[in-house]
Amino acid sequence: MNLLQWFNQHAISFTLILAYIPLIATVVTTIVSLILARATLRYTASSDRSLALAREQFEREWAPELHIKLEQLSAHDAKILVTNLAKISVLMQMVQLRKLSMVVPSLRYFLNEPLVGGTTWSEDLGKRFFACTGENYEGQIAVSITFYAAGRMYRTDWFRFQIQVHNSQLLRLEPVNISARRVRVLESRNGTGSTRREFVRDVVADAAKSDGEPATPAIGSRER
Description:
Blueprint: H1 2-9, H2 11-62, E1 66-74, E2 77-84, E3 90-99, E4 107-115, E5 120-124, H3 127-133, E6 137-149, E7 152-156, E8 159-166, E9 169-175, E10 184-185, E11 194-195, E12 200-202, H4 203-210
Antiparallel strand pairs: 1-2, 2-5, 3-4, 3-6, 6-7, 6-8, 7-12, 8-9, 10-11
């Protein structure tokens, strides 16, 4: 009788506890779900950062990058040397030379020369050099290369050189240690602009922007 009375007295408590079990299970499930969701978000963010870093590293390794140098061979001749600093091979299309005081290049001539990564191409300029400078000139000239890489057309930054020409004789030819201009990334991957120094810009993307069409930046796509 005592046991039966005890069960009768605590029947309401047991019923209440049984009624709260689904509620407690729901609360626990909700808490666990929130913890798992937060962990998933952290993992996703970490994965996105890893993928962005891997993509940036890939683009840095395979972005086209050319270095241009002018060398004095004699008082009547100079040589241009183009070194491919990147892994990707390029196809050079055009050489442009201009005085810094002039907007339009004084000289441009076309090429069809492949340049494998890590190699150097050179050519004597001869009379073409003095066609740019004239018989007498003292100041800076700039040289640029237009080329194809990965199916897109690029143009290098203007590499500057200090020269002195007198009576069609080359007296001085020295490189200027700073680039003619710093180029700026239009939009980084996180949507904010940043300033970087690059050697190339995408000519195709620039042409599309000037026509009012949206252009997808390619590897190495830059604007001055």
